[in-house]
Design goal:
10% strand; 219 residues; 5 strands; alpha/beta; Rossmann fold; 11 helices
């Protein structure tokens, strides 16, 4: 009887945990299905993340046909974990990872996000050991934009805390950490209005700045 109660508690906790995870949008399902059909190869450079990565025309920005965009708008860390297979199987040359803002947007803690990013890093290192991994900081947000009002949960202080945790993880693990946050933040600690029109996503000038900040690592 005691074993049954313990088993029931474990199953309940597991159910509650998954119940707290957002279901993928129709766009995420369609995009993930397409990406699963497209091969990643050994000479490729993969940009991996959510909408902020998804919306970037990376191959054109860098003039490099070996760059593959594997961003998916709306992705959380736990969703990205589930679509890593075709990426690590391809054994790409480099991966540029930015993920976590959508987790914070649904009130997940920085520690929770870090835990999932550790799992992503572990899988890449174990299953694609030749891949050079670059961790990019989470970008700031700007809640002064009215369109940002419905995007609750992302707090400036939590973004800063998560980035510090990521930087510490990278330092301890010998992973290159690229601090984009400091270049996109304004004097109030928010995403500079020059680079956004909704407080979360980037305009063209933002992507051009991003390109300049990482081009030494891409090349």
């Amino acid at each position: 009887m005691k074993k049954l109660l313990i088993l029931g508690s474990i199953l309940l906790c597991s159910t509650l945990l998954h119940a707290q995870e957002s279901q993928p949008s129709a766009y995420q399902v369609r995009k993930a299905d397409l990406l699963n059909q497209l091969p990643v190869e050994r000479n490729d450079i993969v940009f991996l993340g959510n909408s902020i990565t998804d919306y970037g025309e990376w191959a054109e920005l860098f003039g490099n046909r070996h760059i593959k965009n594997r961003g998916n708008s709306g992705d959380r860390t736990y969703q990205l974990l589930r679509r890593l297979d075709p990426i690590v199987k391809g054994q790409p040359r480099k991966i540029f990872l930015m993920i976590g803002t959508n987790d914070l947007g649904e009130d997940k803690s920085p520690e929770y996000v870090l835990g999932n990013i550790r799992k992503i890093v572990s899988r890449i290192r174990q299953e694609s050991p030749r891949t050079r991994l670059y961790i990019q900081s989470i970008l700031p947000v700007n809640n002064h934009f009215t369109e940002f009002a419905h995007r609750h949960g992302r707090k400036d202080a939590e973004i800063v805390k998560l980035n510090k945790l990521l930087q510490k993880m990278c330092s301890e693990g010998g992973i290159p950490y690229i601090d984009l946050h400091q270049h996109f933040v304004d004097s109030e600690g928010k995403l500079d209005a020059r680079y956004t029109n909704d407080g979360l996503h980037l305009m063209g000038a933002g992507y051009l700045l991003w390109k300049e900040l990482i081009k030494q690592y891409v090349k």
